[in-house]
């Protein structure tokens, strides 16, 4: 028989026994739904990891040192690194209160940064401008604020408790900035007056592609690196410095780490032991977590597929049992063992194909209802193809033995069967 005739026969058999066919491919559908959901989520997680790595900067490393660093040291280290490398110094955070026209706005973690801070993880919508090198050179009293959107589940920031009963409690920066346009306004912090030159609007949590450990746990503000040390000179001995290097290529990150270590030891002695963190190791850990989740879900899907395969085997055996005389007639009319084998395998695989379609519909519904951010979800063609192949292959494997038994029936014995 030609393939088109085999498919037509198989489809007629499925339509003739709708309930039996439905029960047969339902277990397959459940297994495929599990596979489809798992593979779709995993595919999206891999894309999210790639996006987070791109956003953070390839070849990124973060170094902590207990010593303060100045602009001369910045330029010296910059010259030691390959051309095109992004270098940023960031002071350790300090808690500050900010005031605007005698109103206590909020409590912040204040950072002193270089403009290159924005080269990594810049997910914000910038209103106004960021810190520039003129601010660094002149130690300008300028500040950049960050505000977060109102969300259904508000972020659980650590808040600086209010101890002074004579002072108004701080207001939420989100609510305050909605009522007052602070851009270009003067605010007071640490008894110093600053001009607000920029406001960073953070994305909602569900739209933020960064790794959890990269996201803000506190409400930050940013001032020029040189200004931070000028207004808090006594803190230089108590606060550490953070160095961020982005080489643009993971293959050069180890060399950059050695360069930074050499530089710090030349500045602060051979006993200097900087703490170095490689971002690609974080990305690998995320990828490993995704694979572990995949293995757990695929195990459940495998069990469902085995159950579905057993269902296909039982149905195929029942079909053969009910069509034994038909097999005898076909053999008597010249059908070969291969024809009989192929016929029942095609019917089983057709059931598997129907199960894969139903399973992908169920899996798609699961993704829409259970995925964290359905707006960012995309469905890869290979997930669809693999789901269909898994269903058809399972049906083929589990129907192979009953079909083989059917093909080996002797025509005389099959014709005598009632």
Residues in helices, as a percent range: 40-55%
Spell the H/E element sequence. Answer: HHEHEEEEHEHEEEHEHEHHHHH
Tally the helices: 12
**Radius of gyration of CA atoms, rounded to a whole number:** 33 Å
Q: Features of this protein?
A:
six-stranded mixed barrel; 418 residues; four-stranded antiparallel sheet; 11 strands; 12 helices; alpha+beta
Give a short synopsis of this structure.
The chain is of the alpha+beta class.
Please write out the topology.
Blueprint: H1 3-16, H2 18-56, E1 60-65, H3 71-80, E2 86-91, E3 94-100, E4 103-113, E5 125-128, H4 133-138, E6 142-147, H5 173-179, E7 186-189, E8 192-201, E9 220-224, H6 225-231, E10 241-246, H7 253-268, E11 275-278, H8 279-322, H9 324-332, H10 337-370, H11 381-407, H12 411-416
Parallel strand pairs: 4-9, 6-8
Antiparallel strand pairs: 1-10, 1-11, 2-10, 3-4, 3-7, 5-8, 6-9, 7-8
Detailed description of the structure:
This protein is an alpha+beta fold and 418 residues long. The chain has 2 domains: 3-52 and 284-416, no CATH class; 56-279, no CATH class. It contains 12 helices and 11 strands. The longest helix has 44 residues, at 279-322. It is elongated and about 105 Å long. The model is unreliable at 160-170 (pLDDT under 50).
């Amino acid at each position: 028989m030609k393939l088109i005739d085999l498919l037509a026969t198989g489809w007629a058999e499925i339509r003739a026994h709708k309930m039996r066919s439905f029960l047969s491919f339902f277990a397959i559908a459940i297994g495929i739904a599990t596979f489809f959901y798992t593979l779709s989520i995993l595919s999206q997680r891999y894309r999210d990891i790639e996006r987070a790595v791109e956003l953070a900067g390839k070849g990124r490393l973060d170094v902590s040192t207990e010593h303060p660093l100045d602009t001369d040291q910045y330029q010296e280290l910059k010259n030691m690194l390959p051309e095109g490398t992004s270098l940023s110094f960031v002071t350790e955070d300090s808690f500050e209160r900010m005031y605007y026209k005698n109103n206590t706005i909020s409590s912040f973690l204040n950072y002193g940064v270089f403009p290159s801070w924005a080269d990594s993880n810049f997910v914000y919508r910038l209103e106004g401008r960021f810190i520039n090198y003129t601010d660094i050179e002149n130690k300008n009293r300028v500040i950049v604020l960050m505000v977060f959107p109102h969300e259904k589940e508000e972020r659980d920031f650590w808040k600086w408790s209010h101890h002074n009963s004579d002072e108004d409690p701080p207001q939420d920066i989100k609510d305050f900035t909605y009522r007052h346009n602070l851009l270009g306004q003067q605010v007071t912090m640490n008894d110093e007056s600053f001009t607000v030159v920029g406001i960073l609007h953070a994305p909602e949590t569900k739209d933020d592609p960064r790794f959890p450990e990269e996201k803000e746990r506190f409400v930050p503000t940013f001032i020029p690196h040189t200004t931070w040390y000028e207004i808090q000179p006594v803190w230089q001995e108590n606060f550490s410095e953070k160095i961020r290097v982005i080489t643009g290529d993971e293959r050069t990150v180890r060399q950059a780490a050695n360069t930074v270590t050499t530089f710090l030891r030349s500045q602060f002695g051979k006993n200097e032991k900087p703490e170095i963190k490689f971002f690609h190791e974080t990305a690998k850990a995320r990828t490993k977590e995704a694979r572990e989740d995949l293995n757990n879900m695929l195990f459940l899907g495998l069990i469902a597929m085995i159950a579905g395969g057993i269902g296909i085997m039982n149905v195929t055996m029942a079909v053969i049992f009910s069509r034994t005389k038909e097999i005898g007639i076909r053999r008597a009319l010249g059908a070969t063992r291969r024809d009989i084998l192929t016929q029942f395998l095609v019917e089983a695989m057709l059931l598997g194909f129907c199960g894969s379609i139903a399973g992908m519909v169920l899996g798609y519904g699961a993704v829409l209802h259970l995925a964290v951010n359905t707006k960012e979800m995309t469905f890869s063609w290979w997930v669809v193809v693999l789901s269909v192949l898994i269903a058809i292959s399972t049906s083929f494997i589990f129907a192979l033995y009953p079909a083989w038994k059917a093909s080996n029936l002797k025509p005389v014995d099959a014709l005598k069967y009632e």
